[in-house]
UniProtKB/TrEMBL annotation:
It comes from Candolleomyces eurysporus. Belongs to the copper/topaquinone oxidase family. Topaquinone (TPQ) is generated by copper-dependent autoxidation of a specific tyrosyl residue. GO terms for biological process: amine metabolic process. It comes from the Eukaryota. This is Amine oxidase. InterPro entries: Cu_amine_oxidase (IPR000269), Cu_amine_oxidase_C (IPR015798), Cu_amine_oxidase_C_sf (IPR036460), Cu_amine_oxidase_N-reg (IPR016182), Cu_amine_oxidase_N2 (IPR015800), Cu_amine_oxidase_N3 (IPR015802). Residues 8-66 form the Copper amine oxidase N2-terminal domain. GO terms for molecular function: copper ion binding; primary methylamine oxidase activity; quinone binding. Pfam families: Cu_amine_oxid (PF01179), Cu_amine_oxidN2 (PF02727), Cu_amine_oxidN3 (PF02728). Its EC number is 1.4.3.-.
Length: 665
């Protein structure tokens, strides 16, 4: 493809390209298969190999080297879709050649593999549940009419009662008494299972409940596991039906004015706070490429990760230094802590099971973003093959970030100096912060509505918090995996683990440590593919370095340090639990593996929990735990670094009905 045909080889598919790709796939399916109807679930760019992209952009592979000669680039895309009649998944690779898209590769997926759940499937799940006669009967028994039923579709998580080839969802059911009221205030006591292909409810589960005893609490059944599909689930739960709480817990101001006792009025004593830049912003945009304060990067929406930053460089006094080939949040997992079935099924993979891009909404000025904003759009495929466009899905702006540095000279007549700090914010749901001093920060904040379940009057709640009368919010975690594809001064990088420890073999009073205060920073080069855990006792940290670039004073290899102390969190589930077996990448804080690319496309190692996540039950073959088993050399290599972090959410009544933004990283 000619250089003039696209602005940047990593530009995401446009809405027009998505339609062209799916149209070509449809033609291929109609001509060469017996598939009668298809439903698309993803259609996205297949990036070219890394060296091809860097040559195109004129970015060198080593310090002081010249860029490689550019070669022709063929624009490629891939599409995942299902046989809408019989089920079963397929993946197609499509290439743009001579101005026309054509199918290059067409693969039927293993029956146990499923593309991620689409927004349309989640909405269909609610329609299916609401229309089901048994669901209506169960709701009616606790006072809820059919038109008051609402539900959230969720991935099934892990349920061995259903074959992995069957595409199923679980549905959390609520009552909703008016159009916009908070449905989560009225949880119902049963959980339907929906077959997404057959579009019908195939089973309904009833969680057991707890009772107070002299010694604390006791579950209504002696077994916390799953009853068989042949058993009466309500009878097995050994408890009575529990009606939903009826009190409204609205969070929309106009509804609160009507539903809150004594009325509701928003604060009126806040004066306006204006963020203005009368001379305009300091950054420049050219399509998806941004330049600001010596930084340059490509910014793109992706259906699965939400946002990816690529080809990040820094202009160091005229030398363009490559730093990161790609940064993205590759996975997010939310395991819940209640052991009684079916609650253990709740551990959502927000990226791998839903797609964090397809779940996005449009950002609004004055709320999501404040100041002078530049927006970027995003597009993803719908079941029909059309493109759904989110106009303002990424926002870019500058912020004052407090004091950069300050020094005071206490001597008489001494001079002090203070410098303000400016930062660039690239915002999706989370924020990438770029600073003038060259460091990068990834910030995640938590907000939203708790996933809740109904509880009986005065019911004990050993694995959660009673956030409102008869409303139980289970303990859970939010675990994230940041994928770092480094190119620190080129593609030959190394990771160094650094521990801060007391001076070894030198007790207090010894000749080398008489006062007992000595401690050192001890470096260990990570030589082979592996995973490493954070160690609080050693203030452990890691550096990604290029041995070919030495600091002029220290003589040490230049690079970037990885700071996770404020966000490192262990996964609280058992190592052999359902959740842990599906998300083995969370067993370490940091992973280092060698990059592997295709001959026609880029990285083959992107998803730490596998490419196809729904319905998995074990560690996938294409996941990071399997990749590092090769123990390949990772010294002075093109490598990948995966950083895991998170937080454990013990809900509080103050988190209800909606909890405010809380940064933890």
């Amino acid at each position: 493809m000619s250089k003039a045909a696209f602005k940047h080889p990593l530009d995401p598919l446009t809405a027009e390209e998505i339609v062209a790709v799916t149209s070509e796939v449809r033609k291929y399916v109609a001509a060469k298969t017996d598939i009668k109807a298809v439903r698309f679930f993803s259609s996205s760019l297949l990036p070219p190999p890394k060296r091809v992209v860097l040559a195109y952009l004129g970015i060198p592979l080593e310090p002081g080297a010249k860029p490689e000669e550019p070669t022709p680039i063929v624009r490629r895309a891939e599409a995942d879709f299902l046989d809408a009649v019989r089920g079963g998944g397929y993946n197609a690779t499509v290439a743009l050649k001579d101005g026309k898209w054509e199918v290059e590769d067409f693969v039927e997926l293993d029956k146990a593999l499923h593309p991620f759940i689409s927004p349309e499937e989640l909405m269909e799940c609610e329609f299916i549940v609401k229309a089901d006669p048994k669901v209506q009967e169960l709701a009616k028994a606790v006072g809820i009419e059919p038109d008051q039923i609402a539900c959230d579709g969720w991935s099934i998580g892990y349920d061995a009662r259903f074959p992995q080839s069957q595409r199923v969802q679980q549905a959390f059911v609520y009552a909703r008494f008016s159009e916009h009221e908070n449905l989560y205030a009225h949880p119902l006591d049963f959980i339907p299972i929906v077959d997404s292909t057959q579009q019908k409810v195939i089973h309904i589960d009833f969680p057991p409940h707890y009772k107070k005893t002299e010694n604390g609490h006791k579950l209504s059944t002696d077994f916390v596991g799953a009853p068989s599909l042949e058993q009466d689930a309500l009878a097995v739960s050994n408890r009575d039906r529990i009606p939903p709480p009826l009190r409204r817990w609205d969070f929309l101001p106009d509804l609160m004015e009507k539903s809150e006792e004594g009325g509701y009025k928003q604060r009126t004593d806040l004066k306006p706070l204006h963020v203005v830049q009368p001379e305009g912003v300091s950054f420049k945009m050219n399509g998806h490429v941004l330049e600001w304060q010596n930084w340059s990067m490509h910014i793109a929406f992706t259906p699965r990760e939400g946002i990816a930053l690529s080809t990040i460089t820094y202009n160091d006094n005229g030398e363009i230094r490559p730093l990161f080939y790609r940064l993205s949040l590759a996975e997010m997992v939310v395991p819940y802590g209640a052991p009684e079935f079916p609650h253990p099924r709740k551990f959502a993979f927000d990226s791998g099971e839903y797609g964090m891009g397809t779940m996005a909404n449009e950002l609004s000025l004055g709320c999501d973003c404040l100041g002078q904003i530049h927006y970027l759009p995003g597009a993803y495929v719908t079941h029909s093959g059309d493109a759904f466009v989110i106009k303002n899905v990424i926002c870019i702006h500058e912020e004052d970030a407090g004091v950069l540095w300050k020094h005071s000279d206490y001597r008489t007549g001494g001079r002090g100096h203070t410098v303000r700090r400016r930062r660039l914010v690239v915002k999706y749901v989370w924020n990438y912060h770029f600073y003038q001093d060259g460091h990068v920060e990834f910030e995640v904040r938590l907000t939203g509505i708790l996933q809740v379940y109904v509880s009986g009057d005065n019911e004990p709640n050993p694995f959660g918090a009673t956030v409102a009368p008869n409303i139980n919010a289970h303990y859970h975690q939010h675990m994230f995996c940041l994928r770092v594809d480094p190119m620190i001064d080129g593609l030959k990088n190394t990771v160094i683990e650094s521990d801060v420890i007391p001076l070894p073999d030198a007790p207090t009073g010894s000749a080398s440590n008489y006062a007992g205060n000595a401690f050192i920073s001890q470096d260990t080069v990570i030589e082979k593919e592996t995973g490493r855990q954070y160690d609080f006792t050693k203030e452990r940290r890691w550096r990604i370095v290029n041995s070919g670039r030495k600091h002029y004073a220290s003589g040490k290899a230049g690079g970037f340090a990885i700071g996770v102390k404020g966000a490192a969190a262990p996964m609280m589930v058992r190592e052999d639990s359902w959740a842990a077996k599906r998300s083995t990448f969370l067993s370490n804080t940091l992973w280092v593996c060698k990059e592997v690319e295709g001959t026609k496309s880029g990285s083959q190692r992107i998803w730490p929990s596998g490419k196809y996540v729904p319905m998995t039950r074990e560690e996938p073959k294409d996941s990071i735990g399997k990749w590092v088993e090769g123990k390949e050399n990772v010294v002075d290599e093109d490598l990948l670094v995966y950083i895991n972090f998170g937080t454990t959410h013990i809900p509080r009544p103050e988190d209800w009905p909606v909890y405010a933004f809380r940064p933890f990283l």
